[in-house]
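quick one before i forget lol
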Amino acid sequence: MRILLFLAALMVTLVGYSQDLNGIWRGTLTQEAGGCFPTYHLEIQMTVNGTNLTGAAYDYYDQSRYVKHHFNGRYNTQTKRMVIIEDRLLQVNIPGDCVSCTKTYDLTWSMENGKEVLLGDWKGIESISRKPCPPGKITLYRVPKTDFPVDIEQPEELAKLQSGLTLQNRETELVTTLSLETPEIKIDLYDNAEIDNDTVTIFLNNKLLLYKQRLTDKPLTLRLQAFPNTDYELVMYADNLGSIPPNTALMVVTAGKQKQEVRLAASDKKNAAVRFRLKE
């Protein structure tokens, strides 16, 4: 009976481990004749919510020549197969005689010599002309660090707003650095004292996530899937000072069973910042 229970627990552990796809995956992307280069580097920064996949993909020759896409995808936990579709071109920095391809990946997760690997094929179309691109193969391994800045998921409307946004140049004061136990993080922001019409704009790793939102006794909530070996910095910018300066907020950070409170104060001269890092 003990052996059966042990085997059952082991199987649950292995299944759970095999399906933990959150993180950084890097390797190679090949392309058949007709492409700019026969082999590229490929890095994907993947966040998983159930069977849904989102993130950023960089295909690059080196770190100065790359194409960055946003992607969505689905993962089948039974077959270990995923389909990833690049749905938004974010950055292009490639030679003028090359073209960017918007790709669809068909990948399968497995273990290879003790390492997690994603193997499969890709096909795509040229981002501008919409002509088919020469297809190829993909090999990716899980890695601890990224070659590029970790992308923060940002709604398109906020990305457009940020591109034209001009804020006052203020000093930023780091309030504290939090060490977190699990990658699933929830951030709640409340008014820290008497509710006095304080409004704030919030950035996470320089990405606008909340714009001119009023602090009350009900939380403004952000969720983050943190990657290891990565620093995250939340900055609170005071849009006004309310009727009782300065602009103050209570931040409650929840990571698994861990819950931490931080009090922030921002003014027309200074922003407040908190850093997060996942325990290694």
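fyi Confidence is low (pLDDT under 50) at residues 3-18.
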